[in-house]
């Protein structure tokens, strides 16, 4: 299964903010959209990603104010991305080795979606269910 197949099921909706937004504004959008990370996109260019983990470690634990801090101060600039044709094994390896939970999907350097660890795990479980069902059918014939 590929990233594109996950996006065709889950959808390609992407939420983004600007690096000049406050962290509080970013968290508000994340809460409204029920997402764990948000992309920072400026002029169609992916500049970074901000996750709940960034907030917890760089604002809360350092006793900073989310209403005074800007996204560019705590966002991750070195974003790990995938392409629509990448397979799930590759995505799992990236998420594991790079210790990230979200992978923006780029095509021709434009963000066309985002997948999370949850999306990948769900897809793998579905693939395993299909395999088990095929094996059961084969055995019972």
UniProtKB/TrEMBL annotation:
Keywords: CBS domain, Kinase, Transferase. PROSITE patterns: CBS. Pfam families: CBS (PF00571). Residues 8-66, 75-131 form the CBS domain. SUPFAM superfamilies: CBS-domain pair (SSF54631). GO terms for molecular function: kinase activity. It comes from the Bacteria. InterPro entries: CBS_dom (IPR000644), CBS_dom_sf (IPR046342), CBSX3_CBS_dom (IPR044725), Diverse_CBS-Domain (IPR051257). This is Histidine kinase. It comes from Flavobacterium psychrolimnae.
